[in-house]
Amino acid sequence: KQWYQRRVRGRAVKKVFGSTTASCLVWITCSQFHFMFYASRTLPNTFGMCCLLTATAYWINKEWESFLWWAGFGVMIFRSELVILLGPMLLLELVSGKLKINELISPGLQTAAVILIVCCSIDTYLWRYTVWPEAVVLYYNTWLNKSSDWGTLPLFWYFYSALPRAMLLALPLAVVGCLTDRRILNFATPALIFISLYSLLPHKELRFVLYAVPLLNVAAAHTLSPIWKKGHLAKLIVVGGFAAHFLCCSLFLSASYHNYPGGPAFH
């Protein structure tokens, strides 16, 4: 499923930023261990990522009705925190004048109502009492701050620990892209807002902000694209960078194998 969603997003990136950037994006994503690791796990975060990738493609293409549907699925069914990533996408479009408020309110309310009715009906039947699961989770983890019972980390942990491990060499490339290209900065701004706001929650896990990685990867791919075109030496350096990524993936895979020994449980 995530492979299909990444392909949809890749086509949208190719349309806006070019084929070389789209190709670099594929290689960067496939060489990052944590993204691929969580893509294989049946967590709500994983299903939320599927919705996010598709919604991002529609955001790039300015197809607002489709964006609202996929954003609604992601926020109201799987992970409510996606609202602080998808919301800034819409806010930036409203501020820039590319989206009118009347194009958003009516379709947005209709979409939210349909998804909420379907979601609550199914979960109320399964749980035998009236419930909207994501609202309960949001209230428990955020308003009551009960997620802190599972441990807390420093305010800037996502920036100095989680993102460097998740993105590796793509992180400095993304920073360069944001500093040198206004279009890339606008593209990455929702991700930066999302990570900054989520950092306020004391309990932190890498998977909570993994949604921001695809947007930042586009910034990294856009920076890498002209380097790849410069000549054989530049290509050799890029290939060396990807080799380093895959080496890191091997190390992370070994650590994961020993930390999550699921296979022996079947013996």
Question: What do you see in this structure?
Answer:
- The chain contains 13 helices and no strands.
- It is mainly α and 267 residues long.
- α2 (19-30) crosses α12 (213-228).
- It is globular and about 65 Å long.
Gist?
The protein is an all-alpha fold and 267 residues long. Helices cover 76% and strands 0% of the residues.
Strand content: under 5%
Number of helices: 13
In terms of structural class, how would the helical and strand content be classed?
mainly alpha
* Average pLDDT metric: 88
Cα distance spanning the termini: 30 Å
Poorly predicted regions are none
Strand element count: 0
**Global Rg:** 19 Å
Shape: globular
**Major sheet: size, sense and barrel closure?**
none
Order of helices and strands: HHHHHHHHHHHHH
Q: Helical proportion?
A: over 70%
Task: List its traits.
13 helices, 76% helix, 267 residues, mainly alpha
Topology:
Layout lengths: L1 H16 L1 H12 L2 H7 L4 H18 L2 H15 L4 H14 L4 H27 L5 H11 L13 H11 L2 H11 L1 H17 L14 H16 L3 H28 L8
